[in-house]
Specification:
Elements: E1 6-9, H1 13-25, E2 33-34, H2 37-47, E3 51-55, H3 64-75, E4 79-83, H4 88-96, E5 101-104, H5 109-170, H6 177-208, E6 217-219, H7 221-236, E7 242-247, E8 253-255, H8 257-273, E9 281-288, E10 291-298, H9 330-341, E11 344-349, E12 355-362
Parallel strand pairs: 1-2, 1-3, 3-4, 4-5, 7-9
Antiparallel strand pairs: 6-8, 9-10, 10-12, 11-12
Helix pairs in contact: 2-3, 5-6, 6-9, 7-8, 8-9
């Protein structure tokens, strides 16, 4: 290792200069040397060194052990103690702070280098373990939330299907055609909800597992968006009208069709779901300067300010959604697909004032396929 920054805490000026000289000769950077525990804490907060060499016996209100304990707790920066001699009680206090090593005075350059290298490698290992454990904790939490959400979200459409099927069976001989179509619509809509839930969960799972790939190919974006709008309009029925407006030449692009379908269907689905019945959904497709912009605008319930920082987290839903069904996975999937595509998303929204979602991609993204 080289160029690591080491803070030296030593109240003997000659010793401090000697340590600084040795460290620089070994290739380390010494931004500053300090002589007290209080100054050590202050400088650690300001310069965030990779390691602190701390003399145990320091003048001032804080000795080296007290300063090291605070540095470890507040900044999680490794500390190596420098000591010539300490009684048993002092050594026990030092051990309690979980130091990354001890160097006994007097020491040579080799002792110094070995202690520092061991401490730095231990820090890297501990950080890797911490990240892995945090990831495992997050995955465990997501699994728990998924099963809770899935049980709830599947129960609603299944109940609708069962109820409608029972009514069709009970009234099959004298059921008016209009009522029969109504029951069939309930069943179809419930099945679509379950299918969307499964699609979102499986897609997010593929992204998290690294199996969802970015695979761009030639795509007539005008035709593709028209097909997506027709499909979404069919699902929306007469409750909403999706208005598609196009600017520029979007016929010859190089994009990932599968990822783009996930992106657009989720954004349009949200606009439909959270807008009052009868309100139009506006979909802008703009192609210019090697860039494509998709903008979906609705006049729905909007997004509360406190929910905006969590929009792309799995299973997160704003408090104002009420009884509107949803999984909280749609925008998570959108963000993952955009990341694979190298795209950007911005969302403008206020409670009760509707939402504008703007997505930007490169028109001809001939980027080599890669995994999440």
């Amino acid at each position: 290792m080289a160029n690591e920054r080491i803070l030296v805490v030593e109240d003997e000026r000659i010793v401090a200069r000697d340590i600084e000289k040795r460290l620089k000769k070994l290739g380390y950077v010494v931004p500053i040397t300090v002589a007290s525990g209080e100054e050590a804490i202050k400088q650690t907060a300001e310069i965030r060194p990779d390691l602190v060499l701390m003399d145990i016996q320091l003048k001032g209100e804080l000795d080296g052990i007290e300063a090291a304990e605070q540095i470890r707790a507040d900044f999680n920066i490794p500390v190596i103690y420098l000591t010539a001699y300490a009684d048993e009680a002092t050594l026990q206090r030092a051990k309690a702070t979980e130091p990354f090593g001890y160097i006994l005075k007097p020491f040579d350059a080799r002792d110094l280098q070995v202690a520092i290298e061991v401490a730095l490698r231990r820090r890297i290992s501990e950080e890797a373990i911490r990240v892995a454990l945090e990831k495992e904790r997050e995955l465990s939490e997501l699994k728990s939330r998924f099963w809770s959400m899935a049980a709830h979200e599947f129960r609603n459409p299944m109940t609708s299907i069962l109820s409608a099927a029972q009514l069709l069976e009970q009234e099959k001989h004298d059921l008016p055609e209009e009522r029969r179509r109504e029951y069939l619509y309930v069943i179809q809509n419930a099945i679509r909800s379950m299918d969307q839930l499964l699609s979102d969960v499986l897609a997010v799972g593929r992204v998290e597992g690294g199996s969802l790939k970015f695979d761009p190919a030639p795509l007539d974006l005008e035709e593709f968006c028209q097909i997506v709008v027709e499909e979404m309009q069919f699902n929306a029925g007469l409750k909403h009208r999706i208005v598609l407006h196009q600017q520029g030449d979007c016929a010859q692009t190089f994009l990932d069709k599968k990822l783009l379908r996930h992106i657009l269907t989720n954004i349009l689905s949200n606009a439909i779901k959270y807008s009052p019945e009868g309100n139009d959904i506006y979909f802008e497709l703009i192609c210019a300067d090697e860039t494509v912009i998709f903008q979906v605008r609705d006049t729905g319930i909007g997004i509360p300010v406190e929910a905006k920082n969590h929009l792309f987290e799995p299973f997160q839903r704003a408090e104002n959604v009420g009884n509107i069904p949803g999984t909280g996975l749609g925008l998570t999937m959108v963000k993952r697909c955009l990341d694979l595509h190298g795209g950007q998303i911005s969302i403008e929204s206020n409670p009760g004032g509707g939402t504008i979602v703007t997505i930007q991609l490169h028109l001809n993204s001939r980027v080599k396929s890669r995994q999440a």
